[in-house]
Amino acid sequence: MVTNGQYERGDLFNPACGTRVILDRIGDKWTALAVLLLQHGPLRFTELRDGIGSVAPKVLTQTLRRLERDGLVTREVFAEVPPRVVYTLTPMGSSLIGPLTAVSDWAEEHISAITASQAEYDGA
Amino acid sequence: MVTNGQYERGDLFNPACGTRVILDRIGDKWTALAVLLLQHGPLRFTELRDGIGSVAPKVLTQTLRRLERDGLVTREVFAEVPPRVVYTLTPMGSSLIGPLTAVSDWAEEHISAITASQAEYDGA
DNA sequence: CAGCAATAGTATCCATTGGTAACCAGCTAC
DNA sequence: GTAGCTGGTTACCAATGGATACTATTGCTG
What is the rounded distance in angstroms from the CA atom of residue B33 to the CA atom of residue A19? Predict the structure, then answer.
């Protein structure tokens, strides 16, 4: 089931399928969270860094650069003093909010059951 | 906005919020893919390993053990020769298929736009 | 009985990614 | 001139993931 000869649809056993490529991309430590945080409007570098709390600036820079390269966020630099850099979701980035929110809602719904399962597993 | 005093709902800026805990858990390299692969029925260790293709047995074992600990899959050992181990989604595991499929569908829909954006970024 | 084959892993070592801490560039206010 | 703000970068260390070899169990082959 080949689409345009480059990516295979649906066949998750094929490493070249689009889903696997994307899971590999947004399945790193901070990407999904960054997109979710930007859903209510643009944020500055420092707002993201301080808000996340535990991310190293180096890693946040990497995450945002990759998102920019993928066309999911834009990066605007204002030549002020002190400098200001604002990150904004593109329309494509915004379209990812829905699916990510589905996962997020699932998480909120099942987090306590998962924690309970872990406790039982560890104690048994 | 605290639920039971342990997890905070909705506030993604709080590292203790359920979404962030779960994103940290299923946002590793193979967990989401393993759940998606199990959606059509149980699979053996070797079927998962060979199907994924590029995962080291050590890492697949870690992934499946964590999923078992979280209560998302069950592990059944048949004392035969050669041995047989079958992994199956629990009801909670199956309930994650919907949200993950939403992400998967998004991926299939936007993979070519993302690839194009990357090419432009790299060439510009 | 010696040797081999099949499955589901471990064990060991190496590579890649993420984290910590320190520093920089540009400008402004003291 | 020196300190401070922002948005990083650099150098180094820790944790996670990957490659390869090996093991345990037991029936089958010769």
Answer: 9
Size of interface A-B (CB pairs under 8 A): 162
Q: Which token pair is A75? A: 């990066």
Q: Can you tell me which residue has the tokens 């998004």?
A: B106
Q: How far is CA A101 from CA A29, A97, B11, B94, in A?
A: 17, 6, 13, 18
Q: Which of A119, A36, A101, A107 is nearest to A73 (CA)?
A: A36
CA distance B46 to B78: 14
Cβ pair B68:A24 closer than 8 A: no
Instruction: Quote the pLDDT of residue B85.
Output: 96
pLDDT tens string B68-89 = 999 999 999 998 889 999 999 9
Q: Which residue of chain B is at minimal alpha-carbon distance from A2?
A: B108
Report pLDDT for A121.
95
Give B98's contacts in chain A (Cβ within 8 Å). 102, 106
| pLDDT at position A8 | 62
Of residues A92, A95, A107, nearest to B19 (C-beta): A107
Q: Does A94 touch chain B (CB under 8 A)?
A: no
| Rounded (10°) angle between helices A45-52 and A57-69 | 120
